[in-house]
TrEMBL record:
Name assigned to this protein: Protein kinase domain-containing protein
Lineage summary: Eukaryota, Metazoa, Chordata, Craniata, Vertebrata
InterPro entries linked: Kinase-like_dom_sf (IPR011009), Prot_kinase_dom (IPR000719), Ser/Thr_kinase_AS (IPR008271)
Location of the Protein kinase domain: 1-269
Domain of life (superkingdom): Eukaryota
Species assigned in the record: Pseudonaja textilis (Eastern brown snake)
Gene3D superfamilies recorded: Transferase(Phosphotransferase) domain 1
Coiled coil location: none
PANTHER family reported for this sequence: PROTEIN KINASE DOMAIN-CONTAINING PROTEIN, SERINE/THREONINE-PROTEIN KINASE SBK1
Molecular-function annotations in GO: ATP binding; protein serine/threonine kinase activity
Length: 293
């Protein structure tokens, strides 16, 4: 794939769909449509090539050898996940059962570690991009590599900062950039874990002006002297230690995704303690336009 030129790919996109499908007759698949108005051909091909590069891993959505274009869209095929995505399992202000989350997290951490071994950063880890092969999360697939890039590649801030966006990205100015590192995915994984365990976000944006993030950072810096924020109180000490490592504001000190393996046999949620305050409604909205409530 890496040796193919852009011109060769352009020609391959014009191959008839029936010719491409004939070799995969009977294979269930999903088609990803990318609107040409919003995406350059080179960006589409970059996502497709990354998906092909990673397809050997069992916890990454398998890109099939089908890519074509319509007058309005670029399209490629990938394996079909019959049980929708992780977001679809979430219950508002409740989350997902811990055992299912642990199954999912082990696979997700493995997928991110594999990407790192290939020198790639996902940059868009969130429940909507974790596909499910079954509702019990025994098999999951990380998908959507539209923002993925090489490790060390200079990246700019996105138009909008999401709850999953790492603080070092949130504070980037419009002309500034930083080098993409696995710590970006680690942060997003930590936020994802909080979200699926509780059914709401820990904050809206990881910036000092966000009161929920500000209270977390104060506790993170001085846990002996600052009280744990109320909506974190239902986690066990082991889970807090894990999340504290994944969500370290300083990216140089942030734990890698594989640290989760050290906590998989410990309980993550206290059996009886509930959060003493109900999270405000503003923390329940999904940045992708969905509602958790």
């Amino acid at each position: 794939v890496g040796s193919l030129t852009l011109e060769v790919f352009k020609k391959r996109l014009d191959i008839s769909l029936s010719e491409m499908l004939s070799s995969l007759s009977g294979t269930p698949m999903a088609l990803k449509f990318v609107h040409k108005k919003d995406t350059e051909l080179q960006d589409f091909l970059s996502e497709y090539c990354i998906a092909l590069t990673l397809r050997a891993h069992p916890c990454i959505a398998t890109a099939l050898g089908i890519a074509f274009q319509t007058p309005q869209h670029y399209v490629f095929a990938q394996e079909l996940a019959l049980a929708r995505d992780l977001f679809s399992l979430m219950v508002p202000k409740v989350g997902i059962p811990e055992q299912q989350i642990k199954r999912c997290t082990l696979q997700l951490a493995s997928a991110l570690e594999y990407m790192e071994s290939k020198g790639l950063i996902h940059r868009d880890v969130k429940p909507e991009n974790v596909l499910l092969c079954d509702p019990e999360c025994r098999r999951i697939k990380l998908t959507d590599f539209g923002l993925s890039c090489l490790r060390g590649q200079a990246i700019k801030a996105l138009p909008e900062s999401l709850p999953y966006t790492a603080p070092e990205m949130c504070v980037l100015g419009p002309k500034a950039h930083l080098e993409a590192q696995p710590s970006l995915d680690t942060w997003a994984l930590g936020v994802l874990l909080f979200c699926v365990l509780t059914g709401y976000f820990p904050w809206l944006t990881a910036v000092p002006s966000d009161q929920y993030y500000r209270s977390f950072v104060s506790w993170h810096r001085s846990p002996r002297f600052v009280s744990l924020p109320a909506h974190w109180e239902h986690f066990t000490p082991q889970a807090l230690e894990m999340l504290k490592g994944l969500l370290t504001p300083n990216p140089a000190l942030r734990s890698p995704a594989k640290v989760i393996m050290n906590y998989i046999k410990t309980p993550w949620l206290l059996p009886e303690i509930k959060s003493r305050v109900r999270p405000s409604r503003e923390l329940l909205g999904s940045p992708s336009g969905k509602e958790i409530a």
